């Protein structure tokens, strides 16, 4: 699994996750993921378009960032999630916690809304 | 098809490859293979992480086949007795994010995604069978 930083400025954090969010994938990216999201204390966009698989460990990683960001009053959006991955996230009721968006523009508008 | 795995988490990648092979050779909808991959990954992770009290090598077995419209997978291990249907509490997914726990989510996926589940403990082995109907792809 890979993590690409797309944008990291004073307004937002925007990253992309790429690959399988399984045990191995999470172990590879978890520290960088938390450093690029939760630790920056900014509204956050996670591009999920190239994530093909997610297990409960991956959901724990996403939830960890969401908990930390929401405690700081920041929203976190998952963007362009593939249908099978979206179904897994829906079963875990992550749709109640994350902003879900089809485009980066939509995500940006929602996470920056007061 | 029959596969076996050592009690090492690196085997999860082999599991995924094996399921891709099974799906390709048996004309199974990729969405169904995705569901089996998720559920079997969670079960195998549980077995490897919590099933054995010693540090020696153990084998865990998977048998998967197509029975008409149904895909049937059975995972067998000689770890501690664990009935995922009764020994795992479902997570409270309605609670607020502050209180949201992740424990039990993997087993919850199993219960939600599979059509039928059956657990037996026989002669020191856990034997978990899961069944899900294949969904034909349009021609």
CATH superfamily of chain B, by name, is Histidine kinase-like ATPase, C-terminal domain
* Cα Rg of chain A: 12 Å
Summed up, the helix count of chain A is 4
Counted beta strands of chain B: 5
Report the CATH architecture of chain B: 2-Layer Sandwich
Labels describing this entry:
heterodimer, A: 114 residues, alpha/beta, Transcription Regulator spoIIAA, 5 strands, globular, B: 139 residues, Heat Shock Protein 90, 3 helices, STAS_dom (chain A)
Mind explaining what this structure looks like?
The complex is a heterodimer of chains A (114) and B (139). With 114 residues, chain A is an alpha/beta fold. Chain A has one domain (2-112): STAS domain (Transcription Regulator spoIIAA, 2-Layer Sandwich). Chain A is 42% helix and 30% strand. Chain A is built from 4 helices and 5 strands; from the N terminus they run ββαβαβαβα. Chain A has a 5-stranded mixed sheet, with helices on both faces. The mean pLDDT of chain A is 94. Chain B has helices spanning 11-25, 30-50, 105-113; strands spanning 2-6, 59-67, 70-77, 116-122, 125-133. The radius of gyration of chain B is 15 Å and the shape is globular. A 5-stranded antiparallel sheet of chain B has the order 1-2-3-5-4, with helices on one face. In chain B, helix 1 (11-25) packs antiparallel against helix 2. With 139 residues, chain B is an alpha+beta fold. The mean pLDDT of chain B is 90. In chain B, 32% of the residues are buried. In chain B, a hairpin with a 2-residue loop joins strand 2 (59-67) and strand 3. Chain B has a single domain, classed as Heat Shock Protein 90 (2-Layer Sandwich), CATH 3.30.565.10. Chain B contains 3 helices and 5 strands; from the N terminus they run βααββαββ. Chains A and B meet through helix 2 and helix 3 of A and helix 1, helix 2 and helix 3 of B. Chain B: GO terms for molecular function: protein serine/threonine kinase activity. Chain B: It holds the Pfam family HATPase_c_2. Chain B: This is Histidine kinase.
């Amino acid at each position: 699994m890979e993590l690409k930083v797309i944008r990291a400025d004073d307004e937002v954090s925007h990253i992309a996750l790429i690959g399988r969010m399984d045990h191995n994938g999470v172990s590879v990216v978890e520290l960088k993921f938390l450093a690029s999201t939760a630790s920056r204390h900014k509204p956050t966009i996670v591009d999920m378009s190239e994530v093909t698989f997610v297990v409960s460990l991956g959901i724990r990683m996403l939830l960890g960032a969401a908990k930390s960001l929401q405690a700081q009053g920041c929203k976190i959006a998952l963007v362009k999630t593939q249908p099978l991955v979206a179904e897994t996230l829906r079963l875990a009721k992550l749709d109640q916690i994350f902003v879900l968006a089809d485009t980066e523009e939509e995500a940006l508008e929602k996470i920056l809304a007061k | 098809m029959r596969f076996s795995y050592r009690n090492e988490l690196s085997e999860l990648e082999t599991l995924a490859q094996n399921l891709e092979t099974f799906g390709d050779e048996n004309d199974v909808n990729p969405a169904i293979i995705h569901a089996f991959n998720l559920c079997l990954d969670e079960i195998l992770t549980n077995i490897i992480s919590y099933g054995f009290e010693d540090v020696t090598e153990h084998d865990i077995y998977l048998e998967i086949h197509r029975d008409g419209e149904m895909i049937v997978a059975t995972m067998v291990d000689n770890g501690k007795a664990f009935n995922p249907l009764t020994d795992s509490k479902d997570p409270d997914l309605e609670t607020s994010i502050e209180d949201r726990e992740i424990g039990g989510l993997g087993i919850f996926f199993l219960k939600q995604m599979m059509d039928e589940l059956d657990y037996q403990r026989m002669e020191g082995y856990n034997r978990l069978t899961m069944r899900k109907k294949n969904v034909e792809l349009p021609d």
